Amino acid sequence: MNIVMNVFNWLIAAGPTVLLPVIITIIGMIFGLRIDKAFKSGLTLGIGFAGIKLILDFMTTNVGPAAKAMVERTGAHLTALD
């Protein structure tokens, strides 16, 4: 029982980038996909999810300071960030 709990704790600690492909692979196998197709689908989704997360992190870290610098330079008041 302790081994099962350790596996679940590791999966949860790994984050959504690891957990989502595992879940999609399991769901694919439940719906009757072969293991190779289910794994490929889970892996593809995981790569796409990691790419979207990478782009969003890049945008938030670079656009935020640029918007703040623009506000300080122009004196504009940005009440919301679109």
Automatic annotation (TrEMBL):
Pfam families: EIIC-GAT. This is PTS system galactitol-specific transporter subunit IIC. It is found in: Cell membrane. It comes from the Bacteria. Its main location: membrane. One of its GO terms (biological process) is phosphoenolpyruvate-dependent sugar phosphotransferase system. The keyword Transmembrane applies. Keywords: Cell membrane, Membrane, Phosphotransferase system, Sugar transport, Transmembrane, Transmembrane helix, Transport. It comes from Lacticaseibacillus paracasei subsp. paracasei Lpp41. The chain crosses the membrane at residues 12-33. It is a multi-pass membrane protein. One of its GO terms (cellular component) is plasma membrane. InterPro entries: EIIC-GAT, PTS_sugar-sp_permease. The keyword Zinc-finger does not apply. GO terms for molecular function: galactitol transmembrane transporter activity. The lineage of its organism: Bacteria, Bacillati, Bacillota, Bacilli, Lactobacillales.
